[in-house]
Amino acid sequence: LAKTTQPISMDSYEGQEVNITCSHNNIATNDYITWYQQFPSQGPRFIIQGYKTKVTNEVASLFIPADRKSSTLSLPRVSLSDTAVYYCLVGDETYTGFQKLVFGTGTRLLVSP
Amino acid sequence: EAQVTQNPRYLITVTGKKLTVTCSQNMNHEYMSWYRQDPGLGLRQIYYSMNVEVTDKGDVPEGYKVSRKEKRNFPLILESPSPNQTSLYFCASSFRPNADTQYFGPGTRLTVL
Q1: CB of B96 within 8 A of CB of B30?
Q2: Do B43 and A32 touch (CB under 8 A)?
């Protein structure tokens, strides 16, 4: 069974780089690791996804080591609007061969002026 | 516009009174899921569906039922709701389980008295 662990909360200031790590054991071997952002009273929103090594898009970078037992979301130069909860998402292969999904416990990021 | 819709958005009911929360997507996605979100517990998958007539249990299926008779619809059924099912519920869809973006509905806030 896949298990995920994230820090409960993090504080930062505008303009700083923030790194949030998710530890995940027993994830599906042929599956991606995805990160989502969630604001209050809204559904999660996709940020970035990767399988191995490093992925970068216009808003974030994702670092995944070779053993895939963790992943780190990097937000460069955060702003006040980045205050939100961040979740990692991994796949967990079931005995049926289907795939259920397991979210991390979430990290509440607070960005201050 | 690509979207996932849920109804109702808010519902207050009493213990034991059967209810259904509807979910519909217009993106021809094969994979659909229901999640519940509770303070301190993050998002937990209740049920998921790989395609029409193919459903399986997530991490917290007790007390819930689902059906997938059409590709676009994935209703969540509570046959006999209890207060511990008071929660915020999200429906989500994607082409594949975790290889591309999951699109989330706006959420349904359910209170069971």
Answers
A1: yes
A2: no
Which residues, 6+ apart, have CB-to-CB distance to B1 below 8 Å?
A: none
The minimum CA-CA distance between A105 and chain B, rounded to whole Å, is 5
pLDDT the model gives residue A97: 63
A95 in B contact zone (CB under 8 Å): no
Q: How far is CA A32 from CA A106, A107, B36, in A?
A: 18, 20, 22
Mean pLDDT lowest for which of A23-27, A108-112, B13-17, B95-99?
B95-99
Choose among B41, B43, B98: nearest Cβ to A91.
Answer: B98
Q: Say whether residue A98 is in contact with chain B using an 8 A CB cutoff.
A: yes
Query: How far is Cα A14 from Cα B62, in angstroms, rounded to an integer?
Result: 43
Is the pLDDT at A94 greater than 90, yes or no? no
- pLDDT for B82 equals 97
